[in-house]
User: What shape does this take?
Amino acid sequence: MTTTLENLLKLSDFAWQRLRARVQGLTDEEYFWEPFDGCWSIRKTGAGFVQDSSDIPPEPSPFTTLAWRISHIVDILQEDRTATWFGHEADPADGQPPVPGSAAEALTALDHSYDVWRRRLAALSQEDLDRRMGQIAGPWANDDGTAFALHILDELIHHGAEVGTVRDFYRGTHPEDPFDEALAGELTPAAHPTLVADAAAAQRWDVIPRLAELGFGLDEMTTNGFTAAHLAAGNGALETVRFLVEHGADLAIADPRFNADVLGWAYWFKRADVIAYLEAQGTKAR
Assistant: This one.
């Protein structure tokens, strides 16, 4: 029987992996991007960076930048209360949550904060989860540890979703086409090895043969762990599957999320024509 703690850890890891994939490739320009006046962000001061804040937040709430949102997630996960409200001591080696001054620093801080939170969560007993938090939790003194763990996970999930939405908003207002850049010779396979997989993720089937001619690898994975062959099979893009097979793509690679090979994806998405083609090539189901 799955325990409460095991379910909390599974949910936490799922939310974290989704967020971490969504912030891959974050740049400083995007990190600090303010789409209009009145945004809350982080500001450089003589002592470093600080978050915009107010004791009584304005209504409606200001739009917050990626810098503000990611710093907020770091703070939520790493602050001492994710240990002390469960009745544990915070390890001094965990440090205090920073306000990262660049995109690179933000990703490092985000990784560390999640490591801190997950270790603290994994260390809890059922007694910790069942016990009322008491005076240390102020107005939430009568809530138990499970309620507090769910609160932290809610913060991770909803702020993580906001981060993804702002990245979509930024991309929509700053259109770029890395595939056209690669075809023009401005991007190299060494600098952007996953471009064929990324093209499949974008369902740009037309550019995959041309990228392959330029030396971009066929078996590289997207940040989610999917090869171009997985995505082509799952989408029923038979001509792309055919091209990848004819050019030596590895069909036996299992993706890390579903542990399925390319034929497994075709079966899951019920792509009968892709299944028939792959099996005619001698591909066997795992």
Summary: The longest helix spans residues 145-173.
